[in-house]
Design a protein that fits this description.
Layout: E1 2-3, E2 12-17, E3 29-35, E4 40-43, E5 48-62, E6 65-71, E7 81-84, E8 90-94, E9 99-106, E10 115-117, E11 123-127, E12 138-144, E13 154-161, E14 166-167, E15 172-173, E16 178-185, E17 191-195, E18 198-202, E19 207-210, E20 218-220, E21 225-233, E22 244-245
Antiparallel strand pairs: 1-19, 2-3, 3-9, 4-8, 5-6, 5-7, 5-8, 5-9, 7-10, 11-12, 12-13, 13-21, 14-20, 15-22, 16-19, 16-21, 17-18, 17-20
């Protein structure tokens, strides 16, 4: 299911999914926070929270700590993310004239020490090199997974797709629900997503809900870089570790795969 946002976001918190209401199937609250210079927002819900800076400059306050974080672009700069448990409130103050943050919340009875993941903490990989005639080359930035923390109910990261190239192929799925949030550069670009048996048009500021066991490969249009934030909700006794691939396409994972017109 795609959630379009052609009009952009208003100042303050913009709710996109609500796990206690219309989006129980996705098991996460997801929203975009827009702040101008001097504006503030407090997040004190009784849920685990992950707060990621997409761009701009803000001050974060939590657990008697205070720090300023800054990011010029989600395409060119690496992410900052604050992860706190349900007993922790966070205050966010805008410093730049325009800042945008993604806020993710979910149920989690575990109490754990808050952690600020800096732009130096994420694991950065160039995936797809040497395969499929380089049609799947992309930058993958993993912020949180089970190798980093077993306390959080989130797996979280970002992809930056080169223009005209694919992500998530060969097609894969997993038991856990997931959210994708998109940016395009330039902003009038688009991409296409195969969501199960349906084709979905992807545009700037779109959000996609990916239900369990639904395949979701995608491609960016030529000339347009496509960024997407991905957040997976671990299941009780079944955290996300590896996906399930559609076997019919796995032959393309071989470095020796012969592809038309050579085949």
């Amino acid at each position: 299911m795609i959630i379009k946002n052609k009009e952009g976001f208003k100042q303050g918190y913009n709710s996109i999914t609500e796990m206690d209401g219309k989006d129980q199937d996705i098991m996460m609250d997801f929203g975009i926070l827009k702040l101008s210079s001097g504006s503030t927002y407090s997040e004190d819900s009784e849920k685990e929270k992950a707060i990621l800076l997409l761009y701009g400059e803000v001050e974060l306050e939590w657990d008697d700590k205070k720090t300023v974080i800054k990011r010029g672009s989600c395409f060119d700069d690496d992410p900052w993310t604050l992860n706190v448990s349900s007993n922790t409130s966070v205050k966010i103050t805008g410093i730049a004239q325009d800042s945008e943050l993604a806020i993710m919340k979910t149920d989690n009875p575990k109490q754990f020490e808050s952690r600020l993941y800096t732009d130096k903490d994420c694991r950065i990989e160039i995936r797809g090199k040497g395969l499929m005639n380089e049609t799947g080359t992309r930058i993958v930035k993993t912020i949180m997974d089970v190798s980093v923390t077993t306390d959080s109910n989130f797996m979280l990261g970002e992809d930056v797709q080169y223009p005209g190239k694919w992500a998530g192929f060969p097609s894969h799925s997993h038991d856990q629900p997931e959210i994708y949030y998109y940016k395009l550069s330039p902003e009038n670009g688009f991409g296409l997503l195969k969501l199960g048996d349906e084709g979905v048009l992807l545009e700037h500021n779109d959000t996609v809900k990916i239900l369990p066991n639904v395949v979701h490969p995608q491609v960016a249009a030529p000339g347009y870089a496509m960024y997407f934030l991905w957040v997976i909700r671990h299941l009780d006794d079944n955290p996300y570790i590896t996906p399930t691939y559609e076997e019919e396409h796995l032959w393309l994972e071989s470095p020796d795969a012969v592809i038309w017109p050579d085949k």
